[in-house]
Amino acid sequence: MTSTAFTLTPIGHISTPFPDKFGIPRQPRLAPHARGILRLDAPYARPEAVRGLDAFSHVWLSWVFHQTAGQWSPTVRPPRLGGNQRVGVFASRSPFRPNPLGLSLVELLDIDTRDGVALTFGGIDLVDGTPILDIKPYIPFVESQPQARGGFVDGPPAELPVIFAPAAELTLATLHSRHPELRELIREVLAQDPRPAYADDAQRQYGVRLYTLDVKWRCTEQGALVEEIIPA
């Protein structure tokens, strides 16, 4: 059979709170306050291209794992299996795929067509600047299958309690007017425990970058303790 190559052109690049891969929710909609704004590029930035989309509450985003393109493996170690057990790449959502294509179900929050087209989404799991290839409406009656088997990810992950130290609380107060959603975003991101599966140093301090902020935290017996929030 003759191999056929395809050329895919992004319709735009999405802006998100996640400048780095570390800390990004491992699935969409685990952090509802993680918002992304997609500004469509020409020639797609036309109001008629999104006509009727506001009738849908959720959409599928097709996108590119642009930071891992060209790197793939036939087997991977999913975090949900502790990072030790291998499964086939096609039984996972690993970014290390033969074709670096991603798919995310996100909430559509706003459509702004006053100057081009800007779409705001909630529950984003994408690094800042991710190329978006397509948008398709989510249709519940055909795409929601509650009886479907979930394999090794059958059920939501356990969540960590998140506690804010006094220094972090003070910074949150000063940033509230600029980032009113920041407390909930930090809580949602850290509740998923973004540490690598092999993490075993209880005293280690981790840093998650959100927007231009460096969130310093560590795990304690009480949960994830946010010690500092450092503006760039």
Automatic annotation (TrEMBL):
SUPFAM superfamilies: YaeB-like (SSF118196). Keywords: S-adenosyl-L-methionine. It comes from the Bacteria. Residues 8-147 form the TsaA-like domain. InterPro entries: TrmO-like_N, TrmO_C, UPF0066_cons_site, YaeB-like, YaeB-like_sf, YaeB_N_sf. One of its GO terms (molecular function) is tRNA (L-threonylcarbamoyladenosine(37)-C2) methyltransferase activity. The keyword Ribonucleoprotein does not apply. It holds the Pfam family TrmO_C. The keyword RNA-binding does not apply. Belongs to the tRNA methyltransferase O family. This is tRNA (N6-threonylcarbamoyladenosine(37)-N6)-methyltransferase TrmO. It comes from Chitinilyticum piscinae.
